[in-house]
Amino acid sequence: MNNRFIRLITVALIGVFILLNLNACGGRVPYGFVKLFREADRVTEVATITASDTPFRFEENPGELELSYEFKGRTYELERFFKRTATTSFLVVKNDEIVYERYFQGADESSRLTSFSMAKSFVSALVGIAIEEGYIESVDDPITRYVPELKGSGYDGVPIKHVLQMSSGVKFSENYYNPFCDLWVMAGRLVFLDRPMDKYMANRKSKEPSGERFHYASVDTQALGMLLRRTKGRPVAEYLEEKIWHPLGMESDAFWNVDCEGVELVFCCLNATAKDYAKFGRLYMNGGNWNGEQIVAESWVLESIVPDSPHLQPGRTENSWGYQYQWWIPEDSDGEFMAVGIFGQYLYVYPKEDLIIVKTSADMAMNDDECLAVFRAVAEYLRGD
Question: What percent of the chain shows pLDDT beyond 70?
């Protein structure tokens, strides 16, 4: 069975399940699709990101998490939460020690688990590095100063900052349970019809002025990928490998799904192990510093996780959380911030508690607020309150 046929069947069946809202599956993806979440290289070609020659490893002191948590006035058990949310990995790092590590549904510590939109936060870090290196002068510059291919599109004249903040004003619908929304139409074009991403981006139109309203649109992150490729003159995966993957001592190869022209689908589709995702969380938890080396400017890290406009504050976006540079800031945050991907992918960072949690899933009935309640319950449990 050739790769193109596999892609056709995959996209068609995913579309059917979305159309039916997965009622027959209780809100979860069948096992075959769970497997694809750790074998995404079967869906498209990929760009490989090689492991570091000098791997960093967390200390390991795994134990149990015998806890329950409160959500909407009810008490739930952690073990049932794992099953109900189709968890594939759950990794807890406290004070640089792995204190809890579980894998489910065929995944293990070597599985390269797909990030979906957690990848957006990696892209944000690379934009910050490119600014620090002088390839990009300012987030206030229009993105078309660096990416002329977007002139005449909805991105023409839009400041890079507004693109980072999902406030570009570009027209794009992203309703995951509507198979006819722009996101799924775009995915079908990419995977089934082998249409190039850059051409799709050049045809996006504006819906409203930029910088006035938060509107989550994955094409904004893809525009940032075009910015990185244009300013660096190299693939985004290579830049990630050089500036983050190798310096952080990532233990395993990762890969990024690409389109028919080899362009990384940076709005999603980075695939890595749970432990390597946690290292990225450690980088941001420490203000961009990695064991004495400043990988990402501390000022960029701080700027990235504090919403600085009224329409980006918790309760003012399309859900109860706040947003800044491709990072989510939970309501009533105590300094916590998160990278989040569809179907239950989370990188939770809580600097005050020196705590990082990675959760990957195949959860079509995902509930971000419930997952946050679990992460906060873990923090409380480890604190000994």
Answer: 91
Q: Could you tell me the pTM of the whole model?
A: 0.94
Q: Using CA atoms, how far apart are residues 368 and 328, in angstroms rounded to an integer?
A: 11
Q: Is the dihedral of CA 49, 104, 326, 375 positive or negative?
A: negative
User: Could you give the CA distance from residue 230 to residue 220 in angstroms, rounded to a whole number?
Assistant: 15
Q: Among 170, 172, 174, which Cα is nearest to 18's? A: 174
Contacts of residues 175-182 at CB distance under 8 Å and 24 or more positions apart, as own/partner, are 176/18, 176/342, 177/18, 177/21, 178/18, 179/15, 179/18, 179/19, 182/219
Other C-beta atoms lying within 10 Å of the C-beta of residue 142: 18
The total of structural domains in the chain comes to 1
**pLDDT band at residue 253, thresholds of 50, 70 and 90?**
very high
Taking the C-alpha atoms of 102, 106, 112 and 117 in order, what is their torsion angle to the nearest 10 degrees?
-80
pLDDT above 60 (res 347): yes
Give, in order, the Cα–Cα distances in Å from 216 to each of 68, 88, 135, 280.
32, 26, 26, 23
List the domain range (segments joined by +) for residue 135.
3-383
CATH number at residue 308: 3.40.710.10
Of 343, 373, 375, give the one whose Cα is nearest residue 358. 375
